[in-house]
Give the backbone structure.
Amino acid sequence: MLKSMTGFGRGEGETGLGKVYVESRSVNHRYCDISVKLPRLLVPFEGRVKEMARMFFSRGKIDISLKLDHTGEGRVQLAADLYLAQQYLEALRTLKERLQLQGEITLEIIAGAKELIVAKEELEDVEPYWERIVPILKESFSDMDHMKRVEGESLARDLQQRWGRIAEQLGAIKQRFPLCLEAYREKLLERLRALLGEVDPDTSRFQQEVAFLAERTDITEEIVRADSHLAQFRAFLNETDPVGRKMDFLVQEIHREVNTISAKANDAEISQRVVEIKSELEKVREQVQNIE
């Protein structure tokens, strides 16, 4: 069953760190591009979150946001940068001497330099909480995967209808082509008779000209290949593996075949049917761009 690249999923659960909320979003993208937004406490898990996401999804621009309802995210300790404080004091003494300033250099003056007091946060070890975060991530990913599958079913129905219309037009072209050859044969014979009058045309030469035209304008191979691509595409509609790129390739190939058909046949009705096919192919291409 097809899967769309558009989806959204949520998951939440309690952990020893507090309540964890996960939101996953996905839109169409040529490759698998995963972005993860984590609270500072859980940054060590970024690589593992991406690895888990790749187990669920093969294509798409995927954004994963994890929020933590946690009030005690580490303890903060204040420490003095003694080396910087010494440099600061020496600079003040130099200013006082060279500018002949009055007054003492006091603690209050030195404390005014905020960068001398450094806040260091002691983060707790979060490794034991990973196993509890995993099912919350899976819940979000599964929720999004379900939405992608539902959207994929809708895309499959639309593609099936459009593919049916394309097959119908190809069938009409297949029936029309022999009539084109016969019409050309009759037209050529009429022109020869008009030019030669009572003289009978050279039957052998005439048949050679008709055979040459039939060979030059034969579109049988193009129709066979296009039919084969259509059959492959229909088979992909029931695949469980990602097939978006394969579908995109087949659309390009069918587009190339019908262009060749139009150029070879040189028939107004066939050309009109090719226009209809290309119109449907363009809509199919837009839909395929959103299939994983």
In short: The mean pLDDT is 84.
